[in-house]
Amino acid sequence: MSLALLSEELRERLKTATRAAFYLDFDGTLAPIVERPEDARAPQPVLDTLSALASDKRFTIAIVSGRAIADLKHCVGISGLVYAGNHGLEIQGPGLSYHAKEAAPSRPRMHDVLTALGEKLALIPGAQMEDKGLTASVHFRRVEASRRSEVVALVKSLVPSDDPHLVLRDAKMVVEIRPRVAWNKGEGVLWIRKALGLESAVEIYIGDDSTDEDAFRVLPGAFTILVGASDRTAARYQLADTTEVALLLKSILDNKEVYGDAG
Ligand SMILES: [Mg+2]
Fold it and tell me: Ligand 1 centre and the CA of 26: distance in Å?
């Protein structure tokens, strides 16, 4: 479905809704993917759109990311939003706070793995390890293509599939090391929905990566939107890139006087 048709369908649905919740991934969804994760920026017009949407009581805006929550807040920089960091393991927002304490027993093991990994990754140019507290990321976007599998193999050798504390998760040009707990972006979004009483809201989830599929799957009735093309996604809709995401959000903002409670 094209951006124009999706926008029209969503705006039509919002006409009969009193509340809407936007769950938005950050990297590759709001901010274009860049070589170094620390250089990622959401364009100012996108941030302005989010601020404007968030200032309307009918809308809830939640940013759901693999980044640590402090980093995520710094990247977005808008107060009053809900922030879910570390794939939903930590959530903060107005009157909201969640921190997965089940992850604490994994921390010593995580520390040992990262120490060993840091030494070995130092020998692979471009490999970047990021300790995000509750989870860690090993980025290999800047590693020479012929050596990327070496990075993945190295991480797998340190975190075997039967590791009692940690589990690996592949994403775009990154291997995520996570505590072995039954929690992900999908669980995080369901927690936000319940905490804010959003059960009857129109829900929109936009994300670009395999970790967003966890959320797509638990939101069968939502406008689930994958950024990028794939024929193996649980999302109901697809948009081409971050520019189309920005245009969709702007079109919703620009038409908000016709929605639900607008009076
Ligand atoms: Mg992403």
Answer: 6
Looking only at the bridges linking them, the beta strands covering 174-179 and 223-227 are unpaired
CATH code of the region 3-100+183-262 = 3.40.50.1000
Instruction: Delimit the domains of the chain by residue range.
Output: 3-100+183-262, 103-179
- Between β-strands 166-171 and 59-64, what pairing exists: parallel, antiparallel or unpaired? unpaired
Q: What is the mean pLDDT of the chain?
A: 95
Which tokens hold the place of 247? 């245009």
Question: For residue 34, how far is its CA from the centre of ligand 1 (angstroms)?
Answer: 11
With bands split at pLDDT 50, 70 and 90, how would you rate the model's confidence at 259?
Answer: confident
Are the C-beta atoms of 58 and 252 separated by less than 8 Å? no
Report how far ligand 1's centroid is from the alpha carbon of 120 (Å).
Answer: 27
Q: What is the spatial order of strands in the sheet that 223-227 belongs to?
A: 96-99, 90-93, 82-85, 59-64, 20-24, 202-207, 223-227, 237-239
CA of 262 to the centre of ligand 1 (A): 32
- Spatial distance between the Cα atoms of 49 and 245, rounded to a whole number of angstroms: 11
The token pair that represents 206 in the structure block: 């936009």
The DSSP code for 236 is S
* Topology of the domain covering 103-179: Alpha-Beta Plaits (3.30.70)
**pTM exceeds 0.90, yes or no:** yes
pLDDT of residue 1: 82
CA–centroid distance, residue 221 to ligand 1 (Å): 21
Q: Compute how many other C-beta atoms are within 10 angstroms of the C-beta atom of residue 217.
A: 14
Q: Which of 48, 88, 11 is nearest to 257 (CA)?
A: 11
Q: Residue 261 Cα, ligand 1 centroid: separation in angstroms?
A: 32
- What percentage of the chain has pLDDT greater than the value 90? 95
Residue 162 appears among annotated catalytic residues: no
